[in-house]
Design goal:
It is a single chain. Strand 3 (57-60) and strand 4 form a beta hairpin. The chain folds into 3 domains: 8-142, no CATH class; 184-279, no CATH class; 296-407, Cytochrome c-like domain (Cytochrome Bc1 Complex, Chain D, domain 2). By secondary structure, it is mostly helical. Helices cover 37% and strands 6% of the residues. Helix 1 (24-37) crosses helix 5. It is built from 16 helices and 9 strands. The strands form 4 sheets. It has a 3-stranded antiparallel β-sheet, with no helix packed on it. A two-stranded antiparallel ribbon has the order 1-2. Strands 6-7 form a two-stranded antiparallel sheet.
């Protein structure tokens, strides 16, 4: 696939005598690239719906939000908006009529987007076919259906301002920081979310549960328990670009990010993101849970878990948990298996899944779901086994934990 250009500056062609400004076609193409980098399609396109016509349901602890139509339809979309108004939405989180936007729209990250990039995204969206589809009304519980309360949330958690270059860092590092902190809005998932739906800058990228989808987004810091401390630059690049690496594979919401967004970014931009992520300092160590499983019960779990593993898992992941990467991820020494949160391994056993199909991994190997053939006790046993065997330092889990995730959303 032909890679799109990565910077508006790349469109400026000239010599000391003359320069050529980018054409509208080039600006639109650049805007499409940036919209990919921001993964706009993930929220603003409903499953089976028209591109960017909105209507995607987003369940939250406060009720259900529905994404809006951002096609250039003059009545239901953004066809009557100006570039100034679009920039205000990204930069300030306010609609053209000054109405407050719910923070499910990551304006707290998009505020870092430059005006030039905002204008390019707007030009791209305005070039799309208009879709006359009305927005669905938001369905939030009381009192969260009162938009006025967002003022308090903004006071606590929102700080506007475009990304500022760090003069002590390289151009590559700054490009990576701009993409990760801005359009990529990575901290929105990979940071702990408090009861008000906000995140603290001091805990950025330290990992956290994604309430809407019931997956755990691991730490992106240099933390060795669940972060990137032992990852090489190549491991990070491979995972971002293709969805698989020698360290593991992406599933769940991150698989969608790679499929919709990251696989379309240039090699230079992917490398810049990896350089920035690799530089993140080690965050606070996660609190270890107090396991309430008695020793005798834990022994029974391990015995049953080994039986289930040998029967269901060893043919792909190996009797020693070494796997056959990148097709079959290793389980021995796998950080995502050992993290404080056991949500991801439980969900993988229950629901299975595929890494994304990408240019670098067009025919991904998938894992079948076992929810229909394993009891809660068996799920707990096999997850406990892989979390505590081969030197893994995870903790046991209970059948109740497994049962609770049987009802988790699949998308």
């Amino acid at each position: 696939m032909i890679r799109l250009l990565t910077s508006l500056a790349a469109f400026v062609i000239g010599t000391a005598q003359a320069q050529t400004t980018p054409s509208r076609h080039d600006i639109i193409e650049h805007g499409e690239y940036l919209a990919r980098a921001g993964d706009c399609i993930a929220c603003h396109t409903a499953p089976g719906g028209a591109l960017f016509a909105g209507g995607r349901a987003m369940p939250t602890p406060f009720g259900t939000l529905y994404s809006t139509n951002i096609t250039p339809d003059p009545e239901h979309g953004i066809g009557r908006w100006t570039a100034d108004q679009f920039y205000r939405v990204l930069h300030d989180g306010r609609m053209p009529d000054s109405g407050l936007i719910y923070p499910a729209m990551p304006f707290q990250a998009y505020t870092k987007v430059t005006r030039a990039d905002s204008d390019a995204i707007f030009a791209y969206l305005q070039s799309l076919p208009p879709v006359p589809q009305a927005d669905k009304p938001q369905d939030l519980d009381f009192p969260y259906n009162n938009r006025g309360l967002i003022i308090g949330w903004r006071t606590l958690f929102f700080h506007s301002g475009e990304y500022e270059q760090d003069p002590n860092k390289s151009a590559e590092w700054n490009r990576g920081a701009y993409l990760v902190e801005g359009l990529g809005h990575c901290a929105m998932c990979h940071s702990p979310i408090n009861a008000l739906g906000g995140t603290s800058p001091s805990q950025a990228f330290e990992g956290g549960l994604i309430p809407m989808q019931q997956w755990y987004a691991p730490s992106l810091t240099s933390d060795r328990e669940g972060g990137l401390g032992e990852w090489s630059l190549t491991d990070i690049i491979d995972l971002l670009r293709t969805g698989v690496s020698q360290r593991g594979a992406v599933y769940g919401p991150m698989a969608e990010v790679v499929y919709n967004s990251l696989q379309y970014l240039s090699d230079d931009d992917i490398r810049a993101m990896a350089v920035y992520l690799k530089s993140l300092p080690e965050g606070a160590p996660p609190e270890k849970p107090n396991t309430s499983i008695p020793v005798a019960e834990n022994s029974l779990l391990l015995s049953l878990g080994k039986t289930v593993y040998d029967t269901r898992c060893a043919s792909c992941h190996g009797s020693n948990g070494a796997g056959m990467p990148p097709a079959y991820p290793p389980l021995a020494g796998n950080q995502s298996i050992q993290m404080t949160s056991a949500v991801n391994p439980i969900r993988m056993v229950l629901n299975g899944g595929f890494p994304p199909g990408t240019e670098g991994n067009p025919k991904p190997y998938g894992m079948p779901p076992f929810a229909q053939v394993l009891s809660d006790d068996e799920v707990a046993a096999v997850v406990t086994y892989i979390r505590t065997t081969w030197g893994n330092q995870g903790t046991p889990i209970s059948a109740q934990q497994a049962n609770a995730l049987r009802r988790a959303p699949l998308d």
